[in-house]
Amino acid sequence: MNLATYVARRAALSVFVVLGVLVITFYLSHILPGNPALLFAGTNPSPQEIARITEQLGLKKPLYEQFLIYINGLLHGNLGESISLQAPVTSLLAEALPNSITLAALATLVAGGIGIPLGILASRSRNSKLDNILRIFSMGMVALPYFWLGLLLQLAFASGLHIFPIASYGGSLFFISQNNIPTITGSYLVDAILSGKFSTAAHILWSMVLPVITLAAFPTGVILRQTRGAMLAVLNQDYIRTAKAYGLPNGIIERKYALKNAISPVLVALALVFAGSLVGTVFIEYIFFLQPGLGFLIFQATGVGSTTTSLAGAPDYALIQGVTIVITIAYVVMNFVADVLQMLIDRRIKL
User: Fold this and answer.
1) Which residues fall within 8 angstroms of residue 101, CB to CB, at 6 or more apart?
2) Residue 320: which of 286, 282, 290, 289 has the closest Cα?
3) 182 confidence band (pLDDT: 50, 70, 90)
């Protein structure tokens, strides 16, 4: 099998995965209790008005017919109307996604920047005190729940030491509106940099330190353990012993021979870390009040938010499906990229 065939096959499988998730999500979201028409109708609607809206939303049609209508809209870039926010889901996702991607990307960079060097260090000093300390550190990072760590960091570094702002982009609910950042990509941080507002970008980045640390904690532990294990497996190979016997410095052996062959599974882990971090923003954005973002949309969609959704007790079908599609596509794309990168870096992998 050549490279083009392999890529085409993986791409086709990815499409089937997305389609499968769409079917499951659509079915599950429609068996949840609650009447979307009641929510859409507002306060004290009459039975006639509820019936009219039910008909208008197509809620009386068979489920398979509703699904086909949804797929048709999806192919045309129409993900429906959010019942709770009274706005197109596509617009809400376009507004929320850039900031969530920025947060997830920064967390992935931190996880890789800390986890890989520490993993190499742990493999270099196997079974030593340093290795044991790093093992405890990685297990601690994996075990810490997002919500607990986030609150702890807020108490220590925001409320206690006053080093970082406690919440919101720029440290204030009005910071973004007061600084008038032009919309280029939709990400506050990236747009501030691209428009030359470096002081504003610095304030935004400073306010993202605690959220990024919180989001990066779990993947840092995972990457550390993954790097250590991969390096140890390679360092025990015969060709590494031969290189040592020839007197090559350890630094050259690790960088030129060991890391090159050990980095492949770490890259896969980093790709999945990015997709996982995108899911993790659900908690982080809520704890640190970072709006707009996928986290607030998910809380809104499931009725946990503070709007009328929770009062009516009805889930926002379109918003749930929209957010799920975005996260699914992120997972599938990052898996696809990781597979291709792994194959390109390590030619020992058979296509």
Assistant:
1) 187, 278
2) 282
3) confident
**CA angle (55 as vertex; 54, 59 as ends), nearest 5:** 60
d(CA 299, CA 123): 41
Tokens (6 digits) for 78: 């129409």
> What is d(CA 295, CA 263) in angstroms, rounded to the nearest whole number?
32
Per-residue DSSP letters for 191-257?
A: HHHHTT-HHHHHHHHHHTHHHHHHHHHHHHHHHHHHHHHHHHHHHTSHHHHHHHHTT--HHHIIIII
DSSP 256-302: IIIHHHHHHHHHHHHHHHHHHHHHHHHHHHHHTT--SSHHHHHHHHT
From CA 226, how far away is CA 19, in angstroms rounded? 31
Q: What pTM does this model have?
A: 0.81
Nearest alpha carbon to residue 165 among 290, 283, 279, 286: 290
Instruction: Show Cβ contacts of residue 96 under 8 Å, excluding neighbours closer than 6 positions.
Output: 292, 293, 294, 296, 297
Q: Is 123 exposed, middle or buried (0-12, 13-18, 19+ CB in 10 A)?
A: buried
Tell the residue number behind the tokens 């504003």, with chain if given: 200
Cis preceding linkage at 145, omega within 30? no
- CA dist 189 to 73, 161, 194, Å? 32, 25, 9
Query: For the chain, give me the number of helices (H) and strands (E)?
Result: 17, 2
> What's the maximum distance between 2 C-alpha atoms anywhere in the chain?
87
295 closest CA partner among 303, 287, 286: 286
Reported as a single tens digit per residue, the pLDDT across 304-344 is 554 444 444 556 777 887 888 888 888 888 888 877 877 77
Per-residue pLDDT of 120-177, as tens digits, reads 899 888 888 998 999 999 999 888 888 889 999 999 998 889 899 988 888 888 888 8
Structure tokens that stand for 41 in this block: 């109708």
Backbone angles phi, psi at 215, to 5 degrees: -70, -30
Asked if 347 contacts 14 with a C-beta cutoff of 8 angstroms, the reply is: no
